[in-house]
Amino acid sequence: MLVVLISPLVLVAVLVVWARWSLLVVTVRGPSMEPTLRDGDRLLVRRRPLARVAVGELVVLAHPAGPDAAFHPAPTGANRGAPTIHSVKRLAGKPGDRVPGSPGEVVPAGRLWLLGDNPGFSADSRVLGSFSADDLVGTVTRALG
């Protein structure tokens, strides 16, 4: 019988690679998600494909950084490789779902309907329309304190 022992160093290296590939830490900036999240909160985000994200979950999107980035998200695939910022919003609709508050309107294919928990201070789908599903990074798993 052949017994293979994995070196603790190799195990640690594998875990670090897995964590860097599947997890991300982001910091909340601004009041758009109050009272759920506050400015300065640090969040642990699990990278997930859209198929594994449920309506109602807090999601993180990545889009190019710039002076108007929060108010003018880039079109699908634009500026890949440019510095990015992350936005935290609540997923209110996936492709094919009805748009909240708009009877008869559905979320288009490849798009997401996102809402901030603080409507008066959130650049979200109520103002900007749908967001590209390609910009989805993952879901918020917990606040880090």
Automatic annotation (TrEMBL):
Limits of the Peptidase S26 domain: 6-99, 105-141
Locations listed in the record: Cell membrane
UniProt-listed SUPFAM superfamilies: LexA/Signal peptidase
Record membrane topology: Single-pass type II membrane protein
Similarity annotation: Belongs to the peptidase S26 family.
UniProt protein name: S26 family signal peptidase
Organism: Nonomuraea longicatena
